[in-house]
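Example 5.3 — Nucleotide exchange factor SIL1
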Amino acid sequence: MNLETGLKEARLNIPTEGEESVESQLEGLPTEQSMVVVDQPEADSEEPGKPALRDQVPMNPPSYDAAGKVPPPIPNAESGDEMSTFQASMLAIKMEARAFDKALDDLNELAHDIYYGVEIAKDGPVLEKLVCLTLGAGTQRMDAKENGRDHKAASILGSALQNNPTALKEIAGYNKMVVNPMCGQGGSKSQDDFVKILRSGIGGEKNAATLRAKVGAISGILREPTFRDEFIKRDGMELLLAMFLKKGEDFDIVRKKVGQLVMDNFLDEGMGASLGVWPKNEASSSKTCQVKENMLDDGCWDHHVDTFSKATPEAAWAKDLLVALKEERGRSSKGSKEREL
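Solution (predicted structure tokens):
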């Protein structure tokens, strides 16, 4: 303690009587420094042309799978036994049992989960029944319009495939079945494909929410490249434009959903769209598109979107869609001219 200030201070390292200093304690210890030398291999002993170990990487590293194996959801007390509910629902739909409608309701609640979405997509019989209901054709024993089954099935498909690359991989294996499903009484495969079956019921569809759900299901399936190409080949874009042109303000939600589908799948690269797939030709004139025989042509999208945009100026999405259409047509036209040169 400092007697003048009354504060405690650290004692200086001054040896008191009877103590040895640090220097005296270290006296006599060796102070030499040593170095260990490790013999290096001669340069000639290395294999000629062989890279250093740090540079040795696999020539063909395994491809990266962003999704990988999807684990089942963790059970919790609040959700109850979801797995049992899911399995029972899948069986009821597959067998077209009496609990069919309840099964659709339960799947509609669970399909948004990535795991359940994958399980739905990998089950061929269930997938086909959901596709048939979505198209409005019905299954062997279940009418699509009864109890809103077509709406529920479309919602299930849309939820199962949304942001679910693993489910898309699974559905790719059923591409032929999705394009040409066995629907209706007796489950006999008709000459009509996915697009034709759905197109046949567009005119009589009165429920805008149901049609919107069907557009969502189509958008999800279009993420699979093989189906997307088949869809375009079979005049699927005419089908979408027919949906866009449904009359009545109630169908504005359908128009917006169609616009979102076109942006996400064909025009907006930031949303994962594949550019250069569609459209590939120039826009048609307004005069041409006002003729009934031409109004569903690919070149008439711009005219119809522009007409709707002017009639509904608050719909900003329509303006964005029109700009994107013009940009993609310009890009496609430029690419065609360069290939000709």
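Remark. The chain has a mean pLDDT of 86.
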